Amino acid sequence: MVHTSLDVVDEKISAMGKALVDQRELYLGLLYPTEDYKVYGYVTNSKVKFVMVVDSSNTALRDNEIRSMFRKLHNSYTDVMCNPFYNPGDRIQSRAFENMVTSMMIQVC
Asked: What are the structural domains, with CATH classification, of the chain?
């Protein structure tokens, strides 16, 4: 399901073309809905892709809340990447990042 969603992300990015570079809104919206899950996507200016899988039965979660969660995730990810002691490609071992992701997961459940 996630691999299929990444294909949809690639299709949306290629459809946007150069407009994506100038675009400030990086949220791609609902990528792949199924009976059990909804898959949302987000892509950064540096082409890092975030995918979020949410249970379809969770009707309390709205589109603007998903967008907000992606922005928080992006900001936290940027903080990790800006850390001079982090080597790109290594596993992220930031407590702040882990706590933020955990709090988002608790919020969704």
From this structure: 1-107 (3.30.450.70)
